[in-house]
Amino acid sequence: MPTLERAVPICRHLARLWMDSEDITDESARCAGLLVISELMTNAIIHTNSVSITGRLRKTGGWFFVEVQDEGGAVSVPYPRRSDYSNEYGRGLLLVARSVQALGTRLETDGGRTFWARISLTG
């Protein structure tokens, strides 16, 4: 998917379709999944020099996984920040971390980075 800001709402739409096809009906899991895909895609667009960013969704047992892989070349590395009214940006990862059961990152052999989140399907 091209690294354009208009790609984020398209990713959310595709994630909704995927959740429908996988019969993910728990509203808490759906909201968390949409928050995660939005935030991780946005961060990949803003904080890397990636030409292509890949989002992956999968369901395993009682879990729903969201992964976003970029091509590396980080301009800056996003990190969770405290919620403060003076911060105009930077609270997204903190919201994501509070909405999921696990959050992490891994470096890929091609220099890219994958951010992932694990979401409970039972709320």
Describe the model.
This protein is about 35% helix and about 25% strand. The protein is α+β, with helices and mostly antiparallel strands. The chain has a four-stranded antiparallel sheet with strand order 1-2-4-3, covered by helices on one side. Strand 1 (about 55-60) and strand 2 form a beta hairpin. The protein is globular, with a radius of gyration of 14 Å. It starts with 6 loop residues before the first helix and ends with a strand. The model has no long low-confidence stretch (mean pLDDT about 85).
Features:
alpha+beta; about 120 residues; 4-stranded antiparallel β-sheet; globular
Topology:
Layout (H helix, E strand, L loop, with lengths): L6 H15 L5 H21 L6 E7 L2 E8 L21 H8 L2 E6 L5 E8 L3
Antiparallel strand pairs: 1-2, 2-4, 3-4
Helix pairs in contact: 1-2, 2-3
What is the first-to-last residue Cα distance?
30 Å
Helical fraction: 25-40%
- Order of helix and strand elements from N to C terminus: HHEEHEE
- Mean pLDDT comes to 85
> What is the structural class?
alpha+beta
Strand content: 15-25%
Record the strand order, biggest sheet: 1-2-4-3
Radius of gyration over all CA atoms, rounded: 14 Å
Q: Report the count of strand segments.
A: 4
The general outline is globular
Number of helices: 3
Model regions low in confidence, pLDDT < 50 over at least 5 residues: none
Which sheet architecture does the biggest sheet show? 4 strands, antiparallel
